[in-house]
Amino acid sequence: MNPSEQVGLLAQPLTLRSGAILPNRLCKSAMSEALSTPDNRVSPGLLRLYSRWAMGGIGLNITGNVMVDRRALGEPGNVVVENPCDIQGLSEWARAAQGQGGAVWMQLNHPGKQAPKGLNLQTVSPSAVPFSPGLQRFFATPRALTDAEILDIVEHFAHAAAIAQQAGFDGVQIHGAHGYLVSQFLSPRHNLRDDAWGGDAPRRRRFVIEVYRAIRAATGKGFSVGIKLNSADFQRGGFDQTESLALMQALDAEGIDLLEVSGGTYESPKMSIGLDAAKSASTLAREAYFLDFAVNAKATVRAPLLVTGGFRTLAGMAQALATGGVDLIGLARPLAIEPDLPRRLFQGLDPQYRTPARVTTGVAALDKLAIMEIAFYARQLRRMAAGKEPLPTESPLKAGLVAAWQSGWKGWQSRRQRA
Predict the structure, then answer these.
(1) Which of 55, 95, 130, 266 has the greatest CB tally within 10 Å of its CB?
(2) 340 within 8 A of 352, measured Cβ to Cβ
(3) How far apart are CA 372 and CA 174, in angstroms?
(4) Helix, strand, or coil (residue 300)
(5) SS3 of 38, please?
(6) Dist. CA 326–CA 318, nearest whole Å
(7) Distance (Å, rounded) from C-alpha 103 to C-alpha 127?
(8) Cβ(63)–Cβ(107) under 8 Å?
(9) What is the dihedral of CA 213, 214, 218, 223, to 10 degrees?
């Protein structure tokens, strides 16, 4: 396949079940920006950042974590959508991200127990299951949710989606991956309930199905609704590929517009550090971390599939689309260091910067934690939010230390604001 044919694949529009038409096959997948105001509203920095990505030519811009409940932040600096009074700021955010004709979706999330100690008054989860020993110093053991609280969270998702629609967003994405609340409900490792919300795979799926139905009822068929799911949690006793495929089929039957495939949790962070060294050379050469699973899934679902993780070259992206198992190419870290990347790709050029398989600081204890990987790229987002260029060659240790200080400061501001 020559470069012209490769560009042609990436430049094709995609029509979703909602009737929305995405102008090309490139998607900026969600990255948590942590750039809200101290009271968790849209900041000028978010407008600058998303305008920058829009100018780069991306077809679908998916925001980072937007929390549906002010009592349940995932990290300092999350935007929270609960109040229609925030529509003006949200509308400005939507317009900034749509600036060059692309679409923008708001990613909706609830952290469950995956929130740093002290950030919220309490943490909740389907069951009172603590994190693995290595993370217990960072995350508290949660309290199990009651049935009434679960139904209330479902309504929070629907309410936030309705506000996003009113503000001009083209759709929403449910965050059902990476160990947050939806993922906790799905996992037999974290969901030990034996009631209507757990006990077997169909009941563990009930929460996310109810969230989807509530969002659809609140927004209508013409509004796009997608979900980000793990192909697997990569944890012993966790959510696996068999259950993931069954969930995708169930959501497909419900009429969902887009399924994004990812993988891992904070305890097993495949979403941040990619594949194990044990993966085959052929898989690495193909670039997409979760392509094999997506190709198998595509044979059983009609909804378009978005695959994120590992794409680094024009040829790799085009090859994935050519398999027929992928409909959209998800880019995250490459766009954190090269926001104009879509324009380069449409010119038949590879990325200017080679995104490393893993960012390392040289400090072994830190490099074991996915949080340092996240911190480096979050630092680049903050630079763009401030109107600066990203620094792909910045010291990861410096970026991590600065990010830790900023996170602590934002956390103090957030707690003070809500006191």
Answers:
(1) 266
(2) no
(3) 25
(4) coil
(5) coil
(6) 10
(7) 37
(8) yes
(9) -40
Domains of the chain: 3-359 (3.20.20.70)
**d(C-alpha 97, C-alpha 385), whole Å:** 13
pLDDT in tens, 286-337: 466 788 899 899 999 999 999 988 898 999 999 999 988 899 999 999 999 9
With H, G, I as helix, E, B as strand and everything else as coil, classify residue 414. Answer: helix
Q: What is the pLDDT of residue 284?
A: 42
Q: State the distance between the two ends of the chain, measured CA to CA, in whole angstroms.
A: 59
Q: Report the alpha-carbon distance of residue 188 to residue 169 in Å, rounded.
A: 34
**DSSP of 272-326:** HH-S-TTS-HHHHHH--TTHHHHHHHHTT--S-EEEES---SHHHHHHHHHTTS-
Cα–Cα distances in angstroms (integers) from residue 114 to residues 70, 212, 302, in the given order: 15, 21, 32
How many other C-beta atoms can be found within 10 angstroms of the C-beta atom of residue 272?
20
If one counts every other C-beta atom within 10 angstroms of the C-beta of residue 357, the result is 13
What letter does residue 133 receive in the DSSP assignment?
A: G
Given this model, what pLDDT does residue 92 score? 98
Contact 107, 64 (CB under 8 A): yes
CB atoms within 10 A of CB 21: 11
* Residue 312 exposure: Cα atoms within 13 Å on the Cβ side: 12
- DSSP assignment letter at 321: H
Type and span of the H or E element at 59: none
